[in-house]
Amino acid sequence: DADVTQTPRNRITKTGKRIMLECSQTKGHDRMYWYRQDPGLGLRLIYYSFDVKDINKGEISDGYSVSRQAQAKFSLSLESAIPNQTALYFCATSDRDTGYTFGSGTRLTVV
Amino acid sequence: AQSVTQLDSQVPVFEEAPVELRCNYSSSVSVYLFWYVQYPNQGLQLLLKYLSGSTLVESINGFEAEFNKSQTSFHLRKPSVHISDTAEYFCAVSRSNTGKLIFGQGTTLQVKP
C-alpha cells in the first residue's frame, strides 16, 4: 500500500455540487497538506495541518474547507464546486526525519 | 514572504546533451531548497535538497544543484540527459525541512532522441 493514499484518483462533478477528496497516510506524520496543481502555476497550498487540532489556511483557501479526522486522515471539501477548481490535487505529509511524502494525486474536473 | 521563480516553462534538449533548469528564490530568512520531479501521470518525487553544509548537492540519477546565496539561485544541472528524464521539474523553498513548501511554476524538460 502507498504511504499516502488519495481517493478518488479521478472525479468529474457538476458545478454547484459538494465534493470531498480524501487522504490517508501510514507514515505516522503529524503534518499534512493539501496542494492544487495548475499548468503554468506549479503547486499552491490550500490548507495545512500540523496536528489534529491545528488547521491553517494556505494561500488559496477560498472555496475549500478541510477536516482532520485523525492523525492519519485529512479531507478536502469543495462545498459548491466551480469550473475554475478543475485541477490536480495533491495531499502530502511531512516530518523532520523523512521530509515530505506526496500522494499520487486526484484529478478533479468540474463541468 | 518567500517566492520561487523558474525562469523557463519548457526546455527542449537532445538526448545526451547537458541541461540546466533555472530556479531563483526570494526570502528574508534562511531557507531550505528542493527540487521535485513529476513523471507523466505520476505524483511528485524528491530529486534533491539543500538543507545546510556543502552548497553542491547531488541526486542518485546524475542531477546536481548548487545553492548560490549571493545570487539566490538553486539551478539544477545534468551533464548528459536521457529520454527517461522527460518530466516536469519543480523547484521549492521552505523555512524548514518539514514546513510549508512554496513551489515555482515548474519546468517541462523534453528530451528528444
Q: Could you characterize what this model shows?
A:
- The complex is a heterodimer of chains A (111) and B (113).
- Chain A is mostly beta strands.
- Chain A has strands at 4-7, 10-13, 19-25, 31-38, 42-51, 54-57, 64-70, 73-78, 87-95, 99-102, 106-110.
- Chain A contains no helices and eleven strands.
- In chain A, the strands form two sheets. In chain A, strands 2, 4, 5, 6, 9, 10 and 11 form a seven-stranded mixed sheet that branches. A four-stranded antiparallel sheet of chain A has the order 1-3-8-7, with no helix packed on it.
- In chain A, strand 7 and strand 8 (73-78) form a beta hairpin.
- In chain A, 36% of the residues are buried.
- In chain B, strands 2, 5, 6, 10, 11 and 12 form a six-stranded mixed sheet that branches. A four-stranded antiparallel sheet of chain B has the order 3-9-8-7, with no helix packed on it.
- In chain B, a hairpin with a 7-residue loop joins strand 10 (87-94) and strand 11.
- Chain B is mainly beta and 113 residues long.
- Chain B is 0% helix and 53% strand.
- Chain B has strands at 3-6, 10-14, 19-21, 23-26, 32-38, 44-50, 56-58, 64-68, 73-78, 87-94, 102-103, 107-112.
- The mean pLDDT of chain B is 92.
- At the A-B interface, strand 4, strand 5, strand 9 and strand 10 of A face strand 6 and strand 11 of B.
